[in-house]
Amino acid sequence: MEHDLEYLESRVAALIAALGESGGQNARLAEALGAALKENAELRFRLEETRNRVAALIERLPRDEEEAV
Q1: How many CA atoms lie within 13 A of 60 on its CB side?
Q2: How far are the Cα atoms of 28, 44, 50 from residue 57, in angstroms, in the given order?
Q3: Where are the annotated coiled coils located (predicted)?
């Protein structure tokens, strides 16, 4: 009986340690997700700016001569 209690105690201690470790990992993953979402938003903004600049440059290109005549 004493052996069973020691075994259960060691298993509970291991479970508590694993739970604490997973909590730390969860916090690191949440931080990484936040950084990735921020970077994604910045990249989307830069992409939209680039699209607008390209569209403006295309508008400045000369038209075909057939259209001008």
Answers
A1: 6
A2: 43, 20, 10
A3: 33-67
